[in-house]
Design a protein that fits this description.
alpha+beta, binds zinc ion
């Protein structure tokens, strides 16, 4: 991943941190979880993501005139540059899709819960 300061491909995710989720730019207070890449298996990490996506969808399903989900973000602020850049992580969001989770894992979870809660999923991960 590219560092936003030195623009080198030297950005690495920290082994522990916090992942936040946003759905069409919105989050619940509970749309956040910790990760530990050294202690948790991919299955455990996926289970946490599933739980938080379902938590938001269950809440969103009660809305009238639900907009389709066009934008999904899973991001962390726990990154380090190998060049020791000072990165302003308060204003920097780095996506963990393609880092902690594959695009296909995220897509399949969104699709599954979209069907369950009747929310149209129109997320484009190609940009
Ligand atoms: Zn850097």
């Amino acid at each position: 991943m590219y560092c936003p300061v030195c623009f080198q491909n030297t950005l690495r995710i920290k082994s522990t941190g916090v992942i936040k989720l946003a759905f069409n730019g919105k989050s619940k207070n509970s749309s956040i979880f910790t990760y530990n890449l050294q202690k948790e298996s991919q299955e455990q990490l996926i289970a946490k993501l599933r739980e938080k996506i379902e938590d938001f969808f269950r809440f969103y399903a009660d809305f009238q005139n639900k907009a389709p989900l066009k934008n999904f973000e899973a991001y962390a602020a726990d990154f380090l540059c190998e060049n020791n850049c000072k990165i302003d992580m308060i204003n920097t969001k780095v996506s963990v899709v393609g880092v902690v989770y594959s695009v296909s894992e995220v897509k399949s979870i969104l699709t599954e819960y979209g069907k369950k809660y009747a929310i149209d999923i129109e997320v484009n991960f190609n940009h």
